């Protein structure tokens, strides 16, 4: 069963973006893109996870939510090694990686095209909730604020939103993601 796939032009688009941005941003570390989400067959698109495109918007977005779609990324290996690679977190490890790049003053960009089509199911929505997830989220938000990503206000707002998300039943969380956070077009 197909769980996700990259579109055929993904790498071509990302290489063009790398070539375009490397001259503008000497500390370019990540080039990502947009994601479509499917349920059942790959043609049944139920939503999109859209992330901001340019560095300043990405940094502002990071104060609330993960600003990069991990399955779409091309990462500068030297930059990744310089920040110590992935952390030992069991959840939020991708989000933490983007924050650590930002706090080390690396540049992250996203391109506007959908690069990956991902399967979504109730297990994905189930992983986004629960007390353990909530505890890690709030703890990390405080750590990230001290690294310069977010303010007291963004920590409170995003933590309150996550409290609601964490305690919602899976069906309600699924509706929230599909109708608000990962809307169709």
Automatic annotation (TrEMBL):
InterPro entries: Nucleotide-diphossugar_trans (IPR029044). Gene3D superfamilies: Spore Coat Polysaccharide Biosynthesis Protein SpsA, Chain A. The keyword Transmembrane helix applies. The chain crosses the membrane at residues 155-176. Keywords: Membrane, Transmembrane, Transmembrane helix. It comes from the Bacteria. This is Glycosyltransferase. It comes from Limosilactobacillus panis DSM 6035.
């Amino acid at each position: 069963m197909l769980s996700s796939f990259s579109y055929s032009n993904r790498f071509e688009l990302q290489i063009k973006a790398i070539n375009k941005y490397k001259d503008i941003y000497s500390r370019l570390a990540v080039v990502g893109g947009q994601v479509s989400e499917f349920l059942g067959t790959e043609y049944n698109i139920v939503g999109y996870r859209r992330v901001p495109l340019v560095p300043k918007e990405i940094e502002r977005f990071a104060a609330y939510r993960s600003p990069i779609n991990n399955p779409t990324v091309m990462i500068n290996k030297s930059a990744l090694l310089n920040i110590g690679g992935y952390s030992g977190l069991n959840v939020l490890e991708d989000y933490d990686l983007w924050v650590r790049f930002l706090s080390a003053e690396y540049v992250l960009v996203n391109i506007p095209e959908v690069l990956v089509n991902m399967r979504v199911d109730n297990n994905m929505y189930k992983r986004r909730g629960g007390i353990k997830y909530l505890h890690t989220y709030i703890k990390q938000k405080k750590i990230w604020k001290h690294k310069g990503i977010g303010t007291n206000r963004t920590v409170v707002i995003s933590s309150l939103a996550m409290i609601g998300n964490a305690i919602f039943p899976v069906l309600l969380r699924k509706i929230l993601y599909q109708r608000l956070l990962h809307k169709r077009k």
